[in-house]
Amino acid sequence: MDIDMSATRQQMLETAEHLNQQMTDGIPFTWETLEQALTSVTEQDDKGIHGWICYFAAFYQLTTGNQEGCLHYLDESVRCLLGTDQEHHVARVYNMIGIVAHMQNNLSLAMEQYDKALDYTEKYDDKMVHSIVLSNMSDAYYLIGAYERAVQCHAECIREFEQADDNSTYSRINFRKMLAEYGCCLLHLHMDDEAEKVLCKLEETGQSKEVIRETRLGVNVFLAYLAERNGDRKKAEEHVHTAVMALEDMTQVSSEYDSIQNLLQYVEKIGKTEQIEEVLNCLEAKAAIEQNKSLLLQLLSLRMRYCSFRMTQTERRHLLPLERQLGTDRKQSGHVYDGTQKTITDSRRGAEGTGTQEKPAVVSGGP
User: 352 or 213, which is more confident?
Assistant: First the structure.
Protein backbone atom coordinates (compact mmCIF):
# COMPACT_ATOMS: atom_id res chain seq x y z
CA MET A 1 0.00 0.00 0.00
CA ASP A 2 1.60 3.27 -1.16
CA ILE A 3 0.95 6.26 1.12
CA ASP A 4 1.38 9.88 0.07
CA MET A 5 3.82 11.44 2.56
CA SER A 6 2.04 14.81 2.20
CA ALA A 7 -1.36 13.31 2.81
CA THR A 8 -4.39 15.49 3.55
CA ARG A 9 -6.47 14.74 6.62
CA GLN A 10 -8.96 12.81 4.48
CA GLN A 11 -6.11 10.69 3.15
CA MET A 12 -4.88 10.16 6.71
CA LEU A 13 -8.34 8.90 7.70
CA GLU A 14 -8.42 6.63 4.66
CA THR A 15 -5.06 5.16 5.69
CA ALA A 16 -6.41 4.29 9.16
CA GLU A 17 -9.72 3.04 7.76
CA HIS A 18 -7.88 0.81 5.29
CA LEU A 19 -5.97 -0.77 8.19
CA ASN A 20 -9.20 -1.16 10.13
CA GLN A 21 -10.86 -2.94 7.19
CA GLN A 22 -7.82 -5.17 6.78
CA MET A 23 -8.07 -6.15 10.46
CA THR A 24 -11.84 -6.71 10.17
CA ASP A 25 -11.36 -8.97 7.15
CA GLY A 26 -8.72 -11.00 8.98
CA ILE A 27 -5.93 -10.05 6.54
CA PRO A 28 -2.56 -10.08 8.35
CA PHE A 29 -0.63 -6.81 8.63
CA THR A 30 2.98 -6.44 7.55
CA TRP A 31 5.23 -4.34 9.74
CA GLU A 32 6.42 -2.43 6.65
CA THR A 33 2.85 -1.24 5.97
CA LEU A 34 2.34 -0.18 9.59
CA GLU A 35 5.69 1.64 9.74
CA GLN A 36 4.79 3.48 6.56
CA ALA A 37 1.43 4.49 8.03
CA LEU A 38 3.00 5.65 11.31
CA THR A 39 5.56 7.71 9.35
CA SER A 40 2.92 9.16 7.04
CA VAL A 41 0.52 10.13 9.86
CA THR A 42 2.65 11.43 12.72
CA GLU A 43 1.43 12.79 16.03
CA GLN A 44 2.22 16.29 14.74
CA ASP A 45 0.10 15.72 11.61
CA ASP A 46 -2.96 14.46 13.49
CA LYS A 47 -2.70 13.20 17.05
CA GLY A 48 -5.98 11.26 17.04
CA ILE A 49 -5.45 9.41 13.75
CA HIS A 50 -1.86 8.64 14.74
CA GLY A 51 -3.21 7.16 17.99
CA TRP A 52 -5.62 5.00 16.02
CA ILE A 53 -2.79 3.69 13.83
CA CYS A 54 -0.77 2.95 16.99
CA TYR A 55 -3.60 0.59 17.96
CA PHE A 56 -3.06 -1.44 14.79
CA ALA A 57 0.69 -1.48 15.47
CA ALA A 58 -0.08 -2.84 18.95
CA PHE A 59 -2.34 -5.50 17.46
CA TYR A 60 0.46 -6.60 15.13
CA GLN A 61 2.92 -6.80 18.04
CA LEU A 62 0.41 -8.86 20.05
CA THR A 63 -0.19 -11.33 17.21
CA THR A 64 3.57 -11.83 16.81
CA GLY A 65 3.97 -12.55 20.54
CA ASN A 66 5.75 -9.28 21.44
CA GLN A 67 3.81 -8.16 24.50
CA GLU A 68 6.35 -5.47 25.41
CA GLY A 69 6.05 -3.92 21.94
CA CYS A 70 2.29 -4.23 22.15
CA LEU A 71 2.13 -2.35 25.46
CA HIS A 72 4.39 0.39 24.09
CA TYR A 73 2.03 1.12 21.19
CA LEU A 74 -1.05 0.79 23.39
CA ASP A 75 0.43 3.38 25.74
CA GLU A 76 1.04 5.70 22.77
CA SER A 77 -2.44 5.04 21.45
CA VAL A 78 -4.18 5.98 24.71
CA ARG A 79 -2.06 9.11 25.07
CA CYS A 80 -2.84 10.28 21.53
CA LEU A 81 -6.52 9.31 21.28
CA LEU A 82 -7.87 10.85 24.47
CA GLY A 83 -9.32 14.31 23.99
CA THR A 84 -9.41 14.09 20.16
CA ASP A 85 -12.19 13.43 17.66
CA GLN A 86 -10.88 9.84 17.45
CA GLU A 87 -11.38 9.18 21.16
CA HIS A 88 -14.17 6.67 20.47
CA HIS A 89 -11.45 4.16 19.46
CA VAL A 90 -9.89 4.22 22.93
CA ALA A 91 -12.33 1.53 24.15
CA ARG A 92 -10.60 -0.94 21.82
CA VAL A 93 -7.23 0.11 23.23
CA TYR A 94 -8.22 -0.38 26.86
CA ASN A 95 -9.74 -3.73 25.86
CA MET A 96 -6.42 -4.83 24.36
CA ILE A 97 -4.53 -3.71 27.46
CA GLY A 98 -6.94 -5.90 29.41
CA ILE A 99 -6.24 -8.79 27.03
CA VAL A 100 -2.46 -8.52 27.63
CA ALA A 101 -2.98 -8.51 31.41
CA HIS A 102 -5.44 -11.40 31.00
CA MET A 103 -2.85 -13.38 28.99
CA GLN A 104 -0.38 -12.81 31.83
CA ASN A 105 -2.99 -14.08 34.32
CA ASN A 106 -3.25 -10.69 36.05
CA LEU A 107 -7.03 -10.76 36.16
CA SER A 108 -7.45 -7.81 38.54
CA LEU A 109 -5.61 -5.48 36.15
CA ALA A 110 -7.46 -7.04 33.21
CA MET A 111 -10.83 -6.30 34.81
CA GLU A 112 -9.76 -2.73 35.57
CA GLN A 113 -8.91 -2.16 31.91
CA TYR A 114 -12.11 -3.85 30.70
CA ASP A 115 -14.09 -1.52 32.98
CA LYS A 116 -12.38 1.48 31.37
CA ALA A 117 -13.20 0.08 27.95
CA LEU A 118 -16.87 -0.30 28.90
CA ASP A 119 -16.98 3.32 30.08
CA TYR A 120 -16.01 4.46 26.58
CA THR A 121 -18.29 2.01 24.75
CA GLU A 122 -21.18 3.48 26.75
CA LYS A 123 -20.00 7.06 26.16
CA TYR A 124 -19.93 6.52 22.38
CA ASP A 125 -22.68 3.86 22.17
CA ASP A 126 -20.35 1.33 20.55
CA LYS A 127 -22.38 -1.85 20.87
CA MET A 128 -20.01 -4.13 18.95
CA VAL A 129 -16.94 -3.31 21.03
CA HIS A 130 -19.13 -3.38 24.15
CA SER A 131 -20.04 -7.01 23.43
CA ILE A 132 -16.39 -7.94 22.76
CA VAL A 133 -15.31 -6.43 26.10
CA LEU A 134 -18.14 -8.24 27.89
CA SER A 135 -16.96 -11.48 26.34
CA ASN A 136 -13.44 -10.91 27.67
CA MET A 137 -14.81 -10.06 31.11
CA SER A 138 -16.87 -13.23 31.12
CA ASP A 139 -13.72 -15.22 30.34
CA ALA A 140 -12.04 -13.64 33.36
CA TYR A 141 -15.03 -14.47 35.58
CA TYR A 142 -14.86 -18.04 34.29
CA LEU A 143 -11.18 -18.38 35.21
CA ILE A 144 -11.83 -17.39 38.81
CA GLY A 145 -14.75 -19.83 39.04
CA ALA A 146 -17.54 -17.21 39.00
CA TYR A 147 -19.48 -19.29 36.47
CA GLU A 148 -22.91 -17.72 37.02
CA ARG A 149 -21.53 -14.21 36.44
CA ALA A 150 -19.62 -15.50 33.41
CA VAL A 151 -22.80 -16.99 31.95
CA GLN A 152 -24.66 -13.71 32.46
CA CYS A 153 -21.96 -11.75 30.63
CA HIS A 154 -21.76 -14.30 27.83
CA ALA A 155 -25.53 -14.33 27.34
CA GLU A 156 -25.61 -10.54 27.13
CA CYS A 157 -22.76 -10.23 24.63
CA ILE A 158 -24.10 -13.07 22.45
CA ARG A 159 -27.43 -11.26 22.30
CA GLU A 160 -25.62 -8.05 21.29
CA PHE A 161 -23.59 -9.85 18.62
CA GLU A 162 -26.72 -11.35 17.10
CA GLN A 163 -28.50 -8.01 17.10
CA ALA A 164 -25.53 -6.30 15.43
CA ASP A 165 -25.75 -8.79 12.51
CA ASP A 166 -22.08 -8.25 11.60
CA ASN A 167 -21.01 -10.93 9.13
CA SER A 168 -17.37 -9.89 8.84
CA THR A 169 -14.78 -12.64 9.23
CA TYR A 170 -13.38 -10.94 12.36
CA SER A 171 -16.80 -10.85 14.05
CA ARG A 172 -17.73 -14.40 13.13
CA ILE A 173 -14.44 -15.67 14.57
CA ASN A 174 -15.06 -13.76 17.80
CA PHE A 175 -18.63 -15.03 17.94
CA ARG A 176 -17.63 -18.71 17.65
CA LYS A 177 -14.90 -18.32 20.27
CA MET A 178 -17.45 -16.69 22.55
CA LEU A 179 -19.95 -19.50 21.98
CA ALA A 180 -17.33 -22.14 22.84
CA GLU A 181 -16.43 -20.39 26.12
CA TYR A 182 -20.13 -19.95 26.91
CA GLY A 183 -20.69 -23.67 26.36
CA CYS A 184 -17.92 -24.56 28.82
CA CYS A 185 -19.47 -22.25 31.43
CA LEU A 186 -22.87 -23.86 30.98
CA LEU A 187 -21.44 -27.36 31.42
CA HIS A 188 -19.70 -26.29 34.65
CA LEU A 189 -23.12 -25.17 35.92
CA HIS A 190 -24.67 -28.47 34.70
CA MET A 191 -26.90 -26.54 32.27
CA ASP A 192 -26.58 -29.31 29.71
CA ASP A 193 -29.68 -28.46 27.67
CA GLU A 194 -28.40 -24.90 27.16
CA ALA A 195 -24.99 -26.28 26.20
CA GLU A 196 -26.64 -28.40 23.49
CA LYS A 197 -28.22 -25.19 22.11
CA VAL A 198 -24.72 -23.68 21.93
CA LEU A 199 -23.66 -26.72 19.89
CA CYS A 200 -26.47 -25.99 17.43
CA LYS A 201 -25.33 -22.37 17.10
CA LEU A 202 -21.76 -23.51 16.46
CA GLU A 203 -22.98 -25.81 13.70
CA GLU A 204 -24.95 -22.92 12.17
CA THR A 205 -21.95 -20.57 12.20
CA GLY A 206 -19.38 -23.06 10.86
CA GLN A 207 -19.83 -22.28 7.18
CA SER A 208 -16.45 -20.69 6.42
CA LYS A 209 -13.23 -22.73 6.33
CA GLU A 210 -11.25 -19.76 7.63
CA VAL A 211 -13.63 -19.18 10.54
CA ILE A 212 -13.56 -22.90 11.42
CA ARG A 213 -9.74 -22.97 11.28
CA GLU A 214 -9.36 -19.91 13.51
CA THR A 215 -11.78 -21.26 16.13
CA ARG A 216 -10.75 -24.93 16.02
CA LEU A 217 -9.04 -24.88 19.43
CA GLY A 218 -11.81 -23.40 21.58
CA VAL A 219 -14.61 -25.23 19.80
CA ASN A 220 -12.94 -28.65 20.12
CA VAL A 221 -12.21 -28.09 23.81
CA PHE A 222 -15.91 -27.38 24.35
CA LEU A 223 -16.83 -30.46 22.28
CA ALA A 224 -14.47 -32.58 24.40
CA TYR A 225 -16.24 -31.43 27.58
CA LEU A 226 -19.63 -32.05 25.98
CA ALA A 227 -18.68 -35.55 24.78
CA GLU A 228 -17.32 -36.37 28.24
CA ARG A 229 -20.57 -35.18 29.82
CA ASN A 230 -22.48 -37.43 27.42
CA GLY A 231 -20.32 -40.41 28.40
CA ASP A 232 -18.40 -40.67 25.13
CA ARG A 233 -14.76 -40.73 26.27
CA LYS A 234 -13.47 -41.89 22.86
CA LYS A 235 -15.08 -38.94 21.08
CA ALA A 236 -13.79 -36.57 23.78
CA GLU A 237 -10.24 -37.84 23.20
CA GLU A 238 -10.61 -37.23 19.45
CA HIS A 239 -11.61 -33.63 20.14
CA VAL A 240 -8.63 -33.17 22.48
CA HIS A 241 -6.32 -34.47 19.74
CA THR A 242 -7.88 -32.03 17.24
CA ALA A 243 -7.41 -29.20 19.74
CA VAL A 244 -3.72 -30.10 20.09
CA MET A 245 -3.38 -30.11 16.29
CA ALA A 246 -4.89 -26.62 16.28
CA LEU A 247 -2.30 -25.52 18.86
CA GLU A 248 0.52 -26.96 16.77
CA ASP A 249 -0.61 -24.88 13.79
CA MET A 250 -0.53 -21.64 15.79
CA THR A 251 2.46 -19.31 15.61
CA GLN A 252 1.71 -18.01 19.12
CA VAL A 253 -0.61 -19.33 21.81
CA SER A 254 -0.82 -16.71 24.58
CA SER A 255 -3.83 -15.07 22.93
CA GLU A 256 -5.72 -18.38 23.37
CA TYR A 257 -5.17 -18.32 27.13
CA ASP A 258 -8.75 -19.22 28.11
CA SER A 259 -9.08 -22.14 25.72
CA ILE A 260 -5.69 -23.43 26.87
CA GLN A 261 -6.77 -23.25 30.51
CA ASN A 262 -9.97 -25.15 29.65
CA LEU A 263 -7.92 -27.78 27.82
CA LEU A 264 -5.44 -28.18 30.68
CA GLN A 265 -8.29 -28.39 33.18
CA TYR A 266 -9.92 -31.12 31.12
CA VAL A 267 -6.83 -33.34 30.67
CA GLU A 268 -5.91 -32.93 34.33
CA LYS A 269 -9.42 -33.95 35.36
CA ILE A 270 -9.25 -37.10 33.20
CA GLY A 271 -5.69 -37.80 34.41
CA LYS A 272 -4.63 -39.85 31.39
CA THR A 273 -0.83 -39.56 31.20
CA GLU A 274 -0.52 -39.99 27.42
CA GLN A 275 -3.10 -37.27 26.83
CA ILE A 276 -1.45 -34.88 29.30
CA GLU A 277 1.93 -35.48 27.68
CA GLU A 278 0.53 -34.78 24.23
CA VAL A 279 -0.77 -31.38 25.37
CA LEU A 280 2.39 -30.52 27.36
CA ASN A 281 4.77 -31.46 24.54
CA CYS A 282 2.94 -29.09 22.21
CA LEU A 283 2.49 -26.18 24.63
CA GLU A 284 5.87 -26.12 26.37
CA ALA A 285 7.85 -25.32 23.23
CA LYS A 286 5.48 -22.51 22.19
CA ALA A 287 5.31 -21.00 25.69
CA ALA A 288 9.12 -21.02 25.84
CA ILE A 289 9.41 -19.18 22.51
CA GLU A 290 6.96 -16.54 23.78
CA GLN A 291 8.72 -16.43 27.17
CA ASN A 292 5.34 -16.86 28.84
CA LYS A 293 6.74 -17.75 32.25
CA SER A 294 3.45 -18.12 34.12
CA LEU A 295 2.22 -20.65 31.55
CA LEU A 296 5.60 -22.43 31.58
CA LEU A 297 5.43 -22.77 35.36
CA GLN A 298 1.94 -24.20 35.14
CA LEU A 299 3.01 -26.70 32.47
CA LEU A 300 6.09 -27.68 34.48
CA SER A 301 3.93 -28.27 37.55
CA LEU A 302 1.63 -30.57 35.54
CA ARG A 303 4.57 -32.48 34.07
CA MET A 304 6.18 -33.02 37.48
CA ARG A 305 2.85 -34.14 38.94
CA TYR A 306 1.65 -36.51 36.23
CA CYS A 307 4.61 -37.45 34.03
CA SER A 308 7.67 -37.42 36.32
CA PHE A 309 7.76 -41.24 36.50
CA ARG A 310 8.58 -41.22 32.76
CA MET A 311 11.50 -38.84 33.22
CA THR A 312 15.11 -39.84 33.73
CA GLN A 313 17.11 -38.53 36.68
CA THR A 314 19.04 -36.29 34.27
CA GLU A 315 15.82 -34.77 32.92
CA ARG A 316 14.58 -34.10 36.45
CA ARG A 317 17.87 -32.40 37.38
CA HIS A 318 17.62 -30.17 34.29
CA LEU A 319 14.10 -29.11 35.23
CA LEU A 320 14.77 -28.20 38.86
CA PRO A 321 16.71 -24.94 38.14
CA LEU A 322 13.97 -23.90 35.72
CA GLU A 323 11.32 -24.57 38.35
CA ARG A 324 13.21 -22.48 40.92
CA GLN A 325 13.75 -19.64 38.42
CA LEU A 326 10.12 -19.61 37.32
CA GLY A 327 9.00 -19.61 40.93
CA THR A 328 11.18 -16.57 41.64
CA ASP A 329 9.84 -14.78 38.55
CA ARG A 330 6.27 -15.48 39.59
CA LYS A 331 6.87 -13.92 43.03
CA GLN A 332 8.32 -10.81 41.38
CA SER A 333 5.66 -10.49 38.68
CA GLY A 334 3.50 -8.13 40.74
CA HIS A 335 6.06 -5.35 40.15
CA VAL A 336 5.66 -5.77 36.40
CA TYR A 337 1.90 -5.36 36.57
CA ASP A 338 2.18 -2.34 38.84
CA GLY A 339 4.40 -0.77 36.22
CA THR A 340 1.92 -1.48 33.44
CA GLN A 341 -0.90 0.00 35.44
CA LYS A 342 1.14 3.10 36.26
CA THR A 343 2.12 3.60 32.63
CA ILE A 344 -1.47 3.57 31.44
CA THR A 345 -2.67 5.78 34.30
CA ASP A 346 0.09 8.31 33.58
CA SER A 347 -0.78 8.29 29.89
CA ARG A 348 -4.38 9.12 30.59
CA ARG A 349 -3.44 11.91 32.99
CA GLY A 350 -1.04 13.40 30.46
CA ALA A 351 -3.62 13.36 27.68
CA GLU A 352 -6.42 14.83 29.77
CA GLY A 353 -4.29 17.37 31.63
CA THR A 354 -1.58 19.62 30.28
CA GLY A 355 -0.87 17.47 27.24
CA THR A 356 2.75 16.95 28.32
CA GLN A 357 3.92 13.51 29.30
CA GLU A 358 7.13 12.06 30.60
CA LYS A 359 8.34 9.05 28.68
CA PRO A 360 6.87 6.01 30.45
CA ALA A 361 9.06 3.31 31.87
CA VAL A 362 9.57 0.29 29.66
CA VAL A 363 7.11 -2.38 30.68
CA SER A 364 8.04 -6.02 30.39
CA GLY A 365 5.77 -7.98 28.08
CA GLY A 366 6.22 -11.17 30.08
CA PRO A 367 4.72 -12.00 33.46
Answer: 213
pLDDT of residue 276: 92
- Prediction pTM value: 0.70
Burial group, residue 220, by CB count within 10 angstroms (0-12, 13-18, 19+)? buried
* Distance from the Cα of residue 147 to its chain's centroid: 19
d(CA 185, CA 333): 29
Q: Is 315 exposed, middle or buried (0-12, 13-18, 19+ CB in 10 A)?
A: exposed
Q: Among 205-214, 322-331, 348-357, which stretch is predicted with the lowest mean pLDDT? A: 348-357
Q: What is the DSSP letter of 208?
A: -
Q: How far is CA 285 from CA 105, 224, 247, 355, in A?
A: 19, 23, 11, 44
Q: Collapsing DSSP states into helix, strand and coil, what is residue 358?
A: coil
CA 110/CA 125 separation, integer angstroms: 22
Neighbouring C-beta atoms of residue 361, cutoff 10 Å: 11
What is the average per-residue pLDDT within 69-82? 96
Residue 74 · residue 62 · CB < 8 Å: no
pLDDT at 252: 75
- Provide CB contacts within 8 A for 6, sequence distance 6+: none
H helices of the chain, where?
A: 9-24, 31-40, 47-63, 67-81, 90-103, 107-123, 127-143, 147-164, 169-188, 192-205, 209-214, 216-229, 233-249, 257-270, 273-289, 293-306, 313-352
